[in-house]
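Sync notes, pocket subgroup
Present: LS, DG
LS reminded everyone that the earlier model was apo-only. Rerun requested with pyridoxal-5'-phosphate included. Inputs:
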Amino acid sequence: MREETRRWIAADKRHAWHPFTAQGEWTDPGHEPLVIVRGEGPWLWDSEGRRYLDGNSSIWTNIHGHAHPAINAAITAQLDAIAHSSYLGFANPRASELAGRLCGFFPDGTLERVFFSDDGSTAVEVAMKMSLQFRMQTGEPERTRFAAFVNGYHGDTMGAAALGGVDRFFERFRRFGPGVDFVETVAQLDPANLNAVVIEPLIQGVNEMRPWPDGMLAELRDWCDRHDVLLILDEVMTGFGRTGTMFACQQEEVIPDFLCLAKGLSGGYLPLGATLTTGRIYDAFLGGPEQAFYYGHSFTANPLACAAALASLGLFESEQTLERLPAKVEHLGRLLADLARDHEEVVEVRQRGLITGIELREGLGLSVCLKAREHGLLTRPIRDTVVLMPPLCVGMGELELAVGAIRKALAEA
Ligand SMILES: *Cc1c(COP(=O)(O)O)cnc(C)c1O
């Protein structure tokens, strides 16, 4: 191991604390964490000079690849102008342009306002608080309950965590948040005092990449309309092409009352969240200071992040990202079907677009991912489901390498 790698790991183990990590295991002298130092396209390099395919898009964030010249140039140009200015009391050019671009994906008179924040959790917090205040300002203050789906994931800040349906993460904190009904199907929803329903459309991520049945999202929109319940779509993972369309909700022609975006919004380059909403919601906040939405973060609408987001949206056009997806989605599906056929350790393959979960027999998830590293694929399991969710720029050969690495790892594990 290189001397500097040794130094970085020692400092990490002495002073840093990692997310969702059993620190006792992390700091064990036998654990040698990878130190990622560079990226290019769908590839990552560690401090020892080893190259890996970024098999989970750096936790579901990266879209067009790392160090993309167009995104780097947009960030650099913005950096030369100004890195950050306050959005409290001032506008900034990149945020103005980005708000317009985001609303432009939806029909006129639907989602037409963008509230910026910092990440996926805060994009969900914004939707929660906005929906509650909307009820207060439209004569229904008793509608304070939320409904969420069992095993759903919406982030880790206190409000978003209260909506989290994954017991092993959220059970201990849920009682500190708002009242939430957890359901498994639309039929189980109860409209009494219900303010809003939140869902990860088309596929649940943290729940081991589990797709919803076709038509379920449209059915939910229908139910919400009938009971005047607000629909919050958490597209933090599914947004920006992951499921094959720019946004997952477009596949069932559903327009939510709130659309939460983050992760891929900036191409996965910088933290940025956005909550889109309708004129109906927005209008309830017009008027004097008593009607204002008292919410914001210091780095709201950060110009560097907005510049990265605009460049990322530009690449969807110049690189025809969505047009080139179906062939990749199909190729990956075929490779995984072959894998499942050849290895009885594969329990199930689940796929929506370029999001896949490969469920393995119990106890194999982590060991297969660690072995796959030695064959050039970097990813993480969720329990025993290996997540394969490469950046959308991935090539056919790179998909073959990724599935080949899992194949070799399965043979060895
Ligand atoms: C990652 C994720 C979040 C949380 O986003 P952060 O940027 O990590 O706060 C919320 N919802 C979904 C569906 C996610 O995948």
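DG: The chain has 14 helices and 17 strands.
LS: Residues 70-318 form a domain with the Aspartate Aminotransferase; domain 2 fold (CATH 3.40.640.10).
Action: DG to write up.
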